[in-house]
Amino acid sequence: EYSALGDSLRTVCSRYECAHYDVERVEDTLANKVNQKKALVNNSDKGGFSLIGMKTKLFGSDTPAQKESKLKQLEAQISQTESELAKVQKQCQLFIDDALREVDSFQRQKSMDLQHVLTNYAVGQLKYCQECLAAWTGARDCFRKM
């Protein structure tokens, strides 16, 4: 029973890692979108070679209308990503709460099982000692009669 529980706990840990990875992935996406928005607002490149910089040199910079359109699109994507992040974080927290409840339940059951086993062991030892005492008492009485 406890080996099956160990396997179950390993599964819970791997599911937690997957849920945490999903949260990190959405956080990275959000950070990238925010950085794109900052770059668009500041109209700055990081320097060096980039596809956006090459496009700007070949075709010219965006018009203010295009820039405003891209900015609105990025803001919508950021808003959508923020709501997705909140949803994923909530799912992760619910999973953590459920997992902690299951582990707590297991710990309580384990304590009860251990108490039951030790109680049965003590009762068995008590009966065994009583039988041994009765046997030795019988042997003593037999030797006294001789």
TrEMBL record:
Signal peptide: none annotated. InterPro entries: AH/BAR_dom_sf, SNX4. GO terms for cellular component: early endosome membrane; plasma membrane; SNARE complex. One of its GO terms (molecular function) is phosphatidylinositol-3-phosphate binding. GO terms for biological process: positive regulation of autophagosome assembly; protein transport. Gene3D superfamilies: Arfaptin homology (AH) domain/BAR domain. It comes from the Eukaryota. This is Sorting nexin/Vps5-like C-terminal domain-containing protein. It comes from Arion vulgaris.
